[in-house]
Amino acid sequence: MRALLPALRPALVLAPMQAITDLPFMRVLAKRSLPDWFVTEYFRAHPASSLNRQLLRAITENATGRPVFAQLIGADLPSLLRSATALAAYPIAGIDLNLGCPAPIVCRKAAGGGLLRDPEALNRLLGGLRAAIAGRFTVKTRIGYTHCGEFPRLLDIFRSHAIDGLTIHARTVQQGYRGPVQPAWVQAAVRALPCPVIANGNIVDAPTALAYHRRTGAAGLMIGRGAIRNPWIFAQLQAAFDGTLPVIPTHRDLLEYIRDLSGEIAREAPRYEPLGHVQRMKRTLGYISHGLAPEFELHIRRCATPAEFWSLCDAHLASDAPLPLRPPVTSQLFSGFAELEEEA
Ligand SMILES: Cc1cc2nc3c(=O)[nH]c(=O)nc-3n(C[C@H](O)[C@H](O)[C@H](O)COP(=O)(O)O)c2cc1C
Description:
The protein contains 14 helices and nine strands. By secondary structure, the protein is an alpha/beta fold. The chain has two domains: 2-242, Alpha-Beta Barrel (TIM Barrel), CATH 3.20.20.70; 251-317. The protein is globular. The protein starts with 10 loop residues before the first strand and ends in a 27-residue tail after the last helix. Bound molecules: flavin mononucleotide (FMN). Flavin mononucleotide binds next to α9.
């Protein structure tokens, strides 16, 4: 992993996001700004699983020139090992294990974030995976399941398995995606672990990225929802760390992004169906329209047909006015990001 880190600034990484960070999104993002590496949305590993062919395309058809880690989710060691071995046949940068997914159906099976509830089982699982994975093996975790007081024990476990990198979404599993993140625990991991640590959660713009980095000393920053909202974010963050001027996209640039994404998603859909396609675009627009004109957000949520969707986008976005650099501080969707800039 160290070989992947840029020399003069923290690595900037696209977060895995199920049903979003697929091949179409990677292609559209890459035309606007590039992370230093990608992590796929998770491949499920269980006794009956085989590698999802559609997800595999993010690896086999990645023409961005940037490495891709393949993420696994599961609790059954033989299944995880079988999946890791199958993935090793493809051009991946490494295997990443998901220890953060808060979905109840996942946690009930003691997978994803649910693994954090049983440190001894986690210890055995990481031992088995580390012993068998010859290439890079990284972990993406939360700071605990119910309470951040669980984190020191988790850190001991991570330290004992010579993992190649640790990404920390600095909330507990029970906190989901809302509220401030806790940079102090990321800083504790940076001090305790020999491997690179990547800080994640609530980076929405250059000031939040700079603050997260200053407060943790992390080797990298991972950005998820902020990159859906603003696909220029990686170029903007590079400029912020290099001390150069950032690109400031306009509403028209955003319209072009939405058109591009819609086209790619439609082209790559196994079966294109116009109304389903609008629903998929509306889910993504939930992040993109947030903080623009309130009536745009509301009407997009209510629209049902492609014609309505595009007439709303054209009416609201055909302007050369610059886009707001950050979401509203009162946002429920990007909740608690302003606290990153408040020094402890
Ligand atoms: C729609 C969605 C899907 C996600 N899917 C995954 C996933 O497949 N694997 C994973 O490790 N995290 C997943 N996450 C969590 C993100 O990778 C990230 O940790 C989280 O969104 C916090 O970062 P952010 O504030 O930059 O978005 C998902 C998050 C969202 C919003």
